[in-house]
Design brief:
Length: 310
């Protein structure tokens, strides 16, 4: 995979890439891209016609925020909060669904105390945690005991795998992630760690979730698909949009496909990158990274104002 143009400041990168947005569909504002599938076009029509019945689910890293070498430095795209603040009051709910702790995503996203985001929900740790803007608090059940055991053994496992240098352990509270993006050979380090980390996870009742140069060890039975489905049910939504960029978003894509089979229109959006292609193949609409996602959300909010799209 071509990593020679690895982003260092992806906000600038996204702006500089000058993407060709998908062709606008007649009848929509020029800025509103058209899904390439009939199911996606139908879902977008339903969402624009009855936004108050729709849930918008969004991944954070790589979707609302550019991927950067140090995950602690990741921040929402500068236009993300304005776009969300325009969209959120018009739809049933906006849920940010992330592998990060909910409080970290709220901080990195700048979601707290923003006018228009009073009903935003952040489902952190793949739905194991929840932050509600209306209360400003995080609620969650106790952490899986295997996470502490894995955390204790991880430095030794990395050392034995010869992948200590340049790898970086991200403490996620309810999960532990090993990043290889800063290793001398990020892809080689990633491959070298897959098996030892899978063995470590299994021994403590956890699973490994691979992502973009990151291997996350976390409890089983928690994924973005479960989180999205439960949230759609809770809200009683009649349509759903989900946007993501990485392999961890595939369960949410499956959840939307299942909802479609049950008659709930769903729009699958891929925040495109040169690192992951699995989502683009299943998406109704591929946009150019976080900048493209943010443009889409803003255009949807604008289209909901328009008398011609009712
Ligand atoms: Mg992501």
């Amino acid at each position: 995979m071509g990593t020679h143009s690895e982003p260092t400041d992806s906000h600038d990168l996204n702006a500089a890439k000058a993407p060709n947005p998908p062709t606008a569909s007649p009848g929509f504002s020029d800025a509103l891209p058209a899904p390439v599938t009939a199911a996606g076009r139908d879902a977008l029509d339903v969402i624009l016609a009855r936004p108050g019945r729709a849930v918008v689910g969004l991944d954070f890293d790589g979707t609302l925020a550019a991927i950067v070498p140090d995950p602690e430095q990741a921040r929402a795209h500068p236009e993300a909060v304005p776009a969300l603040a325009a969209l959120a009051p018009k739809v049933a709910s906006v849920a940010v669904i992330t592998g990060r702790p909910a409080g970290v995503a709220v901080h990195h996203g700048g979601f707290a105390g923003v006018a228009g985001l009073e009903h935003l929900v952040v489902l952190g740790h793949y739905g194991a945690e929840r932050w509600d803007a209306v209360t400003g608090t995080v609620t969650a059940p106790p952490a899986h005991p295997g996470v502490a055991a894995v955390r204790a053994e991880l430095p030794g496992v990395l050392e034995r795998a010869g992948a200590w240098q340049g790898t970086w352990i991200e403490e996620k509270g309810r999960a532990v992630a090993v990043h290889t993006r800063r290793a001398a050979d990020p892809h080689a380090a990633f491959e070298a760690l897959r098996e030892p980390l899978a063995e470590l996870a299994t021994r403590h009742g956890l699973v490994v979730e691979p992502g973009r140069l990151v291997l996350e060890l976390r409890p089983p039975g928690v994924d973005k698909g479960v989180a999205l489905r439960e949230y759609v049910r809770e809200v009683g939504a009649e349509a759903v949009l989900y946007a993501g960029d990485d392999l961890g978003d595939l369960p949410a894509f499956t959840a939307v496909e299942d909802l479609r089979a049950e008659g709930v229109p769903g729009l699958l959006v891929c925040s495109g990158s040169n690192e992951v292609t699995a989502l683009a193949k299943r998406a109704d609409l591929v946009v150019d990274g976080p900048a493209g996602v943010v443009r889409l959300l803003g255009a949807m909010a604008a289209a909901m104002n328009s008398p011609t799209t009712g």
